[in-house]
Amino acid sequence: MPGKYKFKILLVAFITIIMFCNKIFAGTLSGNSFINTLALSGNLPVKELPSFFMLIPFVLLLVMIATGPLFYKHFWEKHYPKISIFLGLIIVVYYIFILENYYPLVHTLSEYISFIALLSSLFVASGGILIKVDRKSTPFANVIFLLFGAVISNIIGTTGASMLLIRPYLRMNKDRISPYHIIFFIFIVSNIGGALTPIGDPPLFLGFLSGVPFFWVIKNVWAIWFITILLILLAFYFFDLNNKKESTKHVEYSGKIHFKGLRNLFYLAIIVVSVFIDPQVITWVPSLYPLPFGIREIIMFSVVFFSYKTADMQVLKDNEFDFEPIKEVAYLFVGIFATMIPALQIIAEEAKVFGDKLSAGIFYWASGGLSAVLDNTPTYMNFLSAAMGKYSLNVANKAHVLKFVEVDDIYLKAISVAAVFFGAMTYIGNGPNFMVKSISERAGIIMPSFFNYIIRYSVIILLPIFTVIWLLFFTGRTIL
Question: Which of 309, 330, 392, 444 has the greatest number of beta carbons closer than 10 A?
Fold first, then answer.
């Protein structure tokens, strides 16, 4: 049997097992929405915490993602889907037969479907849009481009902004492109830019669903956002100013911006609106529970189909569009989502135990550090739950969340900033990071490895800036 068919059978088996768990568990879970804040906060009773040994599949997968492209590239490129799913299946079997705890599996499946629905719909819809900036690439022009991306990431999300702008950004810099161009794009557009609204990044949207007022983020985080973006753009300007790559050709530039694919802007608008089509936001929206998806995901997958079928084929060709980047993300993150289940449960329990001893600074570094390698959405909710526990408040109660925001918002501010910002620390910190990397590599750019990204860029550039933010806002001696 050909390898590709074996893999498809394995993938179907993986999904079937979790769907079976969903059917079994459906009768024991109350509520009108499959995704509910009570579950995400870790407040459901846990029969038994997973063994620390069950962290090994997650660590092993991260190590292989980091080392595979460097030391066994051919093997990794051929077999990474099977490796990812196999390690995920270890966790699935452990939860079914050892812990007999099905909820984390079906909840993770629900999150994974939502994750892939959003990324794939934005990827395909933006792939049908062609933007050409006909002007000379300069450090200042790039700074303006990245600042624009940071702003619109709050309107169409970090994923939407990344998928819409990465190709024109590559084209604009084609004569002097270097890996650092992409790294700073990931820093600013794919992560930190989206920290001002609930649309910008998933943890902030979940906070909104839990009761955090929609405009709370921009009112309380704008100064932190502005300082961070300014410092990163200054670092980028320094890098770009010292880039000696220049085209030897003499080219006349019109300064115009060419745009094709107007229809796909309509599809992008549908995706953004569909984010709010959730029973927790609009009460008359029907829940499809116990199915692990809702109306929102159906709309998004429909956009994938129709936006591709109706796209201008010449635009797709000019964008060098294919499905490999989203396939790579889908295969790797199915393993990441599954293998991180034990880590998230252990973190949730520890956060509840030590919540009363945690300061704003500890919340900042802990939620940030974990968001760099784990899903930042449950990390955000776990630490929010712990912070609210300091005041005997329950994150599952919207009135309690609103009261918490009014009583003391320093903890929520620290968690919100860290969950979004620290996603830029690694390739797996946020979904669009890996997609931007994949698109850039297919354009011929040699991107740094997993470890090189962290050592040469994240630690050198981001960590000092994040430390400045901590000193200014979260040490207990707030300067601003």
Answer: 330
